[in-house]
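Lesson 9: reading folded outputs for more than one chain in a single document. The general rule is that every protein is listed as its sequence immediately followed by its structure tokens, and records are never interleaved. Here is the first one.
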Amino acid sequence: MDLTTTLIVIAFGIPTLLILVYVLGGRKWLKTKPWAVEFFATIEPIEITLWRKSETILWARFQQLCGILLTLLTEMGTLDLTPLFPLLPEKYKWLPSMLPLVISVAGRVSEMQRLDTTKPVQLVELPDVLPPHVAEVVREAEVTKQNAVAVVETIAAVKKAEGASP
């Protein structure tokens, strides 16, 4: 492996490892530490803006970024995927060139899934056929969630309008 490839692997590997640890429990662990309070107070606006404070969205968007960067590096000739070719059977030689696209698409699909499934996992994992009293509670929870989202959207719209007016 030449120096450029080694540097690219390190440049992708270190952030990937850090974000993976953060997503898989590092954030939750850090939130319990008193010395991290100031850190989270500082980065909260960044979290809200870039990944809506969702570890799943952070990981999905990081995958998309990696796919885009790999595509750019491959197109510029900085990253050479041909060393992967001997490892593959002849009919799969096209696969390494698709790797950046696959990573980007996987990230996008993950983000779309997260945005689509915003219910708590306890509600998602319920069976389709519920006893009547449980079904009623789930319906009430859904109505409450929709009302809460509507209130938050209204408040956000009012704040945005106040900020936009002179």
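And here is the second record, again sequence then tokens.
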Amino acid sequence: MDRPALGTLLALAFVGLRGGDGRELPPLPAVERPLGLPALATPPDPDEERAAELGRHLFFDPVLSADRSLACASCHVPERGFADAAAFSAGVGGARTLRNAPSLFNRALGTSFFWDGRAATLEQQVLMPIADPREMGLALDDAVERLRADTELRAAFEATFGTPPDRDELARALAAYVRRLVLGDSPVDRFRAGAFDALSDEERAGLWFYESRGGCWRCHAGANFSDEDFHNTGVGARDGVSEEGRAAVTGVPEDRGRFKTPTLRGVTLSAPYMHDGSLADLEAVVAFYRGGGRANANLDPLLAPLEMTDADAHNLVAFLRALSRSAEGPTDR
């Protein structure tokens, strides 16, 4: 089948597919490199475009949850920075997740996935919540059979990949959509590109603190404001004992309590914060780090009480809000 015919069939296959609540789906983000981000990992091509379009529909369709009550978008809500307003998201049958749903912005730049990094690729990551009994609770074999039994979705898979639904193509479609969720072109990016007036005095002072005395850049580094590494900040530690964190994946005792550094892009949208959703707002986050985190046996040596005034704290929050604003897309609420 040639490309024009395949594209036409795909468009026809998607007729009638909508979100789980019947609402029209948000548009598929364009393939572009926003100011401040490096080139995207996956170059645009017709096959990837079709895969991302199918992934968009699957992301918002509750067909992938055991009781058809939840979609990926139930916990990764677009208006919330593709995160969740709850500390722990609701799963099927009244279950609750064990960790806060992180933002999906700029996961195209990720090197590992989940708070503990247990998935090495985005294709691995997107399938795990489907089968997790605390999340969507649907065995992957059952998910594939359900997709094959759905006339419209089966047609969409065949139009996209030339085959009926299977695990690999399900993963490819969802991952292709998530890779399109990019955020950049903030006032901070424009300031760094030479537009001095893009930031207010407070925001510039916050950026200066972030890059100097605050030392925030040591973990929230690079274009995505994350080093993609794991650190023990003491979040979740009780009586000096941390949760397993990264150690559950590596088996290394020194990794106990270490969790992935999240991106700061779009951060105003994704409260509450930390892997356990224990900090309600940015002011609480800044206060936590101002105090040097929470003491425990594996506390990261980068963590120590900060020499910070109330004005510094205010300016740092102003900078983080500026980093969340974009010429197009999410804005600071």
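What the second record shows: Confidence is low (pLDDT under 50) at residues 1-19, 328-333.
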